[in-house]
Design a protein that fits this description.
By secondary structure, the chain is of the alpha+beta class. Helix content is 13%, strand content 28%. Helix 1 (43-48) links the parallel strand 2 and strand 3.
């Protein structure tokens, strides 16, 4: 099974003036999480997605893809739309029975249980790194786009 990590913009002030002492009440720097990731890179696996499941451990990467639906789903999901460089274009939460609009610039989509993306720090502008046991899954995902 592959894993993914998130890097990118950190919420909060865009800049701290030079020479400003550290804020003791500020949260500690975020340590990158290794999130379990299934990769759906065949047409059949992308069609099936999370259908028929009651939950998901980690996330599912659909590649190539630029849109999803939740018709027949049993739970709400978070959806992150990624460009060719695995940079997050948008994150949405979709309830079951919805048809999402395709994102024209998206080449990959990540699905996870609702609320997971916020916990992991996945937001617009963040970059996703994908690592697989048998090679560089991130490069494979980018080639598919």
């Amino acid at each position: 099974m592959a894993t993914m990590t998130v890097s990118g913009p950190v919420p909060g002030p865009a800049e701290v003036p030079p020479g400003t002492p550290p804020d003791p009440s500020a949260p500690p720097p975020r340590i990158p999480l290794e999130i379990p990731l299934e990769i759906a890179d065949s047409a059949r696996a992308r069609r099936r997605g999370l259908l028929g499941r009651t939950g998901v451990t980690g996330a599912l990467l659909l590649s190539p893809a630029n849109g999803v639906h939740t018709l027949g789903m049993r739970f709400a999901i978070d959806v992150a739309y990624l460009d060719r460089e695995l940079r997050v274009l948008a994150v949405r939460t979709m309830r079951p029975g919805r048809l999402g609009l395709p994102r024209l610039r998206a080449r990959h989509v990540i699905e996870a249980e609702a609320g997971a993306m916020a916990r992991w720090g996945v937001r617009r502008g963040a970059r996703i790194a994908v690592r697989g046991a048998g090679g560089d899954a991130g490069a494979a995902a980018r080639r598919a786009g």
